[in-house]
Design brief:
Protein name (chain A): U6 snRNA-associated Sm-like protein LSm1
Family (chain A): Belongs to the snRNP Sm proteins family.
Main location (chain A): cytoplasm
Order of helices and strands of chain A: HEEEEEHEH
Distance between the termini of chain B: 17 Å
Keywords (chain A): Cytoplasm, mRNA processing, Ribonucleoprotein, RNA-binding
Strand content of chain B: 35-45%
Function (chain A): Component of the cytoplasmic LSM1-LSM7 complex which is involved in mRNA degradation.
Oligomer: heterodimer
Structural class of chain B: mainly beta
Largest sheet of chain A: 6 strands, mixed
Order of helices and strands of chain B: HEEEEEE
Strand content of chain A: 25-35%
Number of helices of chain B: 1
Chain lengths: ~170, ~80
């Protein structure tokens, strides 16, 4: 390279010898912003709602993670939401929390992680009241197994239609 | 890398992400990575009544593998579909 020439700046790309005016490119955002690490770093030591692929919701504090979104959560509570059919009138909407302790979650099971807004966390979810753990758990178990049955049948029928097993068939997605 | 670059151009735009479990979430795209994991700020769940558990959540990190499709606002060039 001619020592008198300015080395092309990283922004100019294809400009040789400074002939044309460089086009303004997209805003230069720091490259470290675009990694899993950068995204999860913001969420560390925060109270999170983790939704798993099988539909479970875990509330806990994210302690550590890796590039596959394997996660360690502490002070975890498993939260169940049910609509309990009631003989007279509309179904009662109940939720309950079961304390679980520390979790290591494998990344492939993660659906999404939500940062809980601590101001809104004090209120109960809209329309829901906290119910007794035993009752909520029983109802949830029953509804889950009913849904798993119908999902399995649906997945099998879809698989038959398309001529083979579909990706994720038989697995309950929320 | 192609879709990664495409998503990078959409940072700070409002997008709607439809997940494989049928939840639709609208929010501002804040960040994306090579696996197409997505971070959205200020989210709004479009079928809220069916999914109450995200009522006190403002920001989410969504794993790329669970996204069914993503729709940007029409005037920003339309959406990308992927299965």
């Amino acid at each position: 390279m001619n020592p008198a020439e300015q080395p092309p700046s990283t922004q100019d790309g294809n400009v040789l010898g400074g002939a044309a005016v460089p086009q303004p490119g997209p805003p230069q955002l720091p490259p470290q912003m675009f990694t899993t690490a950068a995204q999860l770093l913001d969420l560390t030591d925060k109270k999170l709602m983790l939704v798993l692929r099988d539909g479970r919701k875990l509330l806990g504090v994210l302690r550590t993670w890796d590039q596959f979104a394997n996660l360690v959560l502490t002070e975890t509570k498993e939260r169940y939401y049910v609509e309990a059919p009631s003989p007279a009138g509309p179904p009662r909407k109940l939720f309950c929390d079961i304390p679980r302790g520390t979790f290591l979650v494998r990344g492939e099971n993660v659906l999404l992680l939500g940062e809980i807004d601590l101001d809104r966390d004090d209120e109960d979810p809209p329309g829901y009241v906290e119910g007794p753990v035993e009752e909520v758990f029983e109802i949830q178990k029953r509804q889950e197994s009913e849904r798993k049955q119908s999902d399995k049948t649906k997945a099998r029928k879809a698989g038959d239609f398309w001529g083979g097993e579909l990706e994720g068939s038989g697995e309950v997605l929320f | 890398m192609l879709f990664f670059s495409f998503f990078k151009t959409l940072v700070n735009h409002t997008v709607t992400i439809e997940l494989k479990n049928d939840i639709s979430i609208r929010g501002t795209l804040k960040s994306v990575d090579q696996y197409l994991n997505i971070k959205l700020d200020d989210i709004q769940v479009l079928n809220e009544d069916k999914y109450p558990h995200l009522s006190s959540v403002k920001n989410v990190f969504i794993r790329g593998s669970v996204v069914r499709r993503e729709a940007g606002l029409a005037k920003q060039g339309g959406g990308q579909g992927r299965v």
